Amino acid sequence: MPPKPRKPPPRRPDARKRNLLIAAGAAAAVVAALVVVSIVVAGGDDSGTTTTTNGGSAALFDGITQEGAELGSQSAPVTMIQFEDLQCPICRAYQEDGFPGIVDEYVRPGKVKLRFAGLAFLGQDSEKALRYALAAGKQGKLWPYVADLYANQGDENSGWVTDDLLERLAGENGLDWSRLKTDAASAEVTQEIDATSAEAARRQVPGTPTFFVQIGDGEPYVVQPSSLSIDAFRPILDDALDG
Amino acid sequence: MTDRALRAGLAVVAVAGIAVAGYLTYVHYQPDALICTSSGGCETVQESDYAELAGIPVALLGLIAWVAVLALVVWDSELARTLVAAIALGAAGFAIYLIVLQAFVIDAWCIWCLVNDLVIVPLLAVTTVWRAWSLREVD
User: Fold this and answer.
1) Domain locations along chain B
2) Fewer CB within 10 A of the end CB, N or C, for chain A?
3) Residue of B30, B36, B44, B72 best to disrupt the A interface, most CBs of A under 10 A
4) What are the tens digits of pLDDT across the range A198-216?
């Protein structure tokens, strides 16, 4: 009769505890490595967000009619309304991603007109930036000024909308700085902000960016692109143009 | 409390973690699904340089960890229990780092990230009891 195989002796609790300690040590080492990589990769920029300072976005809008908060031909059959907050990083992502293509493919040929519907619900920097953006609209330069504000967007309510930044961007866009300051503080701009805020409430805008499309004088309807790229906006705008 | 109940509890915690980390991973790749609202700074945190580690979204790392926890709970061996304990400890440590980042570096709070951190607390608690239970069994 062959010998019965021996059952291995049960592992001692001490060995289990030792294994647990080893696992805990390994976990601590992994976490330390992750933290080091995170700090090394991202820590170079102490703001935590990418901030660029290139001013002068005027080239994108060259030759396109700008009237107040609207960009494009007044006879364009379709209007896209863009509810934005100048402190919103997703709005900035849209500005860098899909927006230039929309301007080139739809606004420049006169198919679509854009309307900037600025909100200021993220805080004091939102309102200051919005006031100056709307004031730039009084000089026919809201859109490049908005583009430059996005390009210089800082951390939420960190005080990034400084007078120095506003004045520099005004200079780069050929704006009259003293007039800009006066208009930004005007009751007219306050009324515009209040009107847009009321429109957002009426249209139940949940946040920014939110897009509405209006065909002719029809009732605007909300659209939800699958991404912020031009590829996602093409079918929406083409459908609207087809009526 | 039975060992079976503890395992079931861990599985529930892991599923909750998968749901939250899965949502955060989804919005990382589909930023349009995340709009800026007045209620929080998720978008700021998700857009920050700290949202990725060497190109890998932190949310995806979290999702992988939660899936691993669930798989290990189902597997349920001596090694699996040890690994769950290690993941729980590691997750808690990294969550503390992420909370410090949100508070002092990014200056914005991502509610969903905090919910994910919150789910780690029961993970750690149940894992500790579970591990202590299995150590007691052999004492």
Assistant:
1) 3-138
2) N
3) B36
4) 999 999 998 899 999 999 9
| Predicted model pTM | 0.65
Q: Which CATH superfamily is domain B3-138 in?
A: VKOR domain (1.20.1440.130)
B54 and A41: CB-CB below 8 Å?
yes
Chosen for mutation from A11, A38, A205, A210 (greatest number of chain B CBs closer than 10 Å) is A38
Report the residue of chain B nearest A92, measured CA to CA.
B47
Distance CA A166, CA A181 (A): 9
Element (H, E) at A81: strand A78-85
Domain assignments of chain A as residue spans, ordered by start: 70-242
Q: Does B43 touch chain A (CB under 8 A)?
A: yes
CATH 3.40.30.10 fits A70-242, yes or no: yes
pLDDT band of residue B45 (cuts 50, 70, 90) is confident
Q: What is the CA radius of gyration of chain B?
A: 16
Tell whether ipTM is more than 0.95: no
Nearest beta carbon to residue B93 from set A28, A121, A228: A28
How many residues are present in chain B?
139
Stated as kind and residue range, the H or E segment containing A22 is helix A13-42
Averaged pLDDT, A100-124: 95
Spell out which residues of chain B touch residue A19, defining contact as CB-CB under 8 Å. 82
Task: Output DSSP code: residue A70.
Answer: E
C-beta atoms of B49 and A34 within 8 A: no
Q: What confidence tens digit (pLDDT) does each residue in A53-73 have? A: 444 577 899 999 999 999 999
How many contacts does A have with B, using Cβ atoms within 8 A? 128
